[in-house]
Specification:
Length: 198
């Protein structure tokens, strides 16, 4: 039930907000996981982003929710890295004064949960090939510079247009196109090295 209008659009109902959050949760988790390579951090980022959207913008029109959520999600990812940088600086300083060697180095490239939708391939062999190629692409996406990865995922994963992506990233549309072009070329080159024609 909507009683007010914002910019000509009816305000989102509680159900519309809830439906939007359910529909975007898995994709947002993948974005955060690509960025952080840490499952727990990715979950925290997505939950924090969803709470901020509901608290601050839950009364906005339904049409505005995807762009607002992307902006919040990217800001939460950046905040995570800022906090990590500060923690790492203090950890380095403190470790110079201590001799705690109980912590083992963790592999930063953790595997991504395989919860993809079923593929459209016609044979089991095609399904296997598609699954393997997608795993390689996901691994290569995680290696992209942050801004290239953000632009690529928003444009091609979230299906946002150039203007929406630029607004979410806080940059010009030309920058979005440049980031996407560089990301696409880097991914194509990585696939070619593995003998896969993109």
């Amino acid at each position: 039930m909507t009683t007010r209008l914002s910019r000509g659009f009816p305000l989102a109902t509680a159900k519309q907000l809830s439906d939007f959050l359910v529909s975007t949760e898995k994709r947002a988790y993948k974005q955060a996981l690509f960025a952080t390579r840490d499952e727990d951090a990715a979950l925290d980022i997505v939950q924090d982003s969803m709470m901020k959207l509901a608290d601050r913008y839950g009364n906005r029109p339904e049409e505005e929710l995807p762009l607002l959520f992307q902006r919040i999600l990217q800001n939460c990812i950046r905040d995570h890295f800022r906090r990590s940088k500060v923690r790492n600086m203090w950890s380095t300083l403190l470790s110079a004064f201590g001799s705690n060697q109980d912590d083992e180095d963790r592999d930063p490239l953790e595997s991504i949960a395989d919860d993809r939708p079923s593929y459209l391939a016609k044979t089991p062999e095609e399904q296997l090939n598609q699954g393997q190629t997608l795993q390689i692409i996901e691994a290569e996406i995680s290696k992209l510079p942050a801004r290239q990865r953000e632009a690529f995922l928003m444009r091609y994963w979230e299906d946002m247009n150039v203007a929406e992506t630029a607004a979410a990233m806080g940059c010009s549309e030309g920058s979005v196109k440049t980031h996407c072009s560089r990301a696409t070329h880097a991914l194509a080159a990585a696939l070619e090295k593995r003998g896969i024609q993109p």
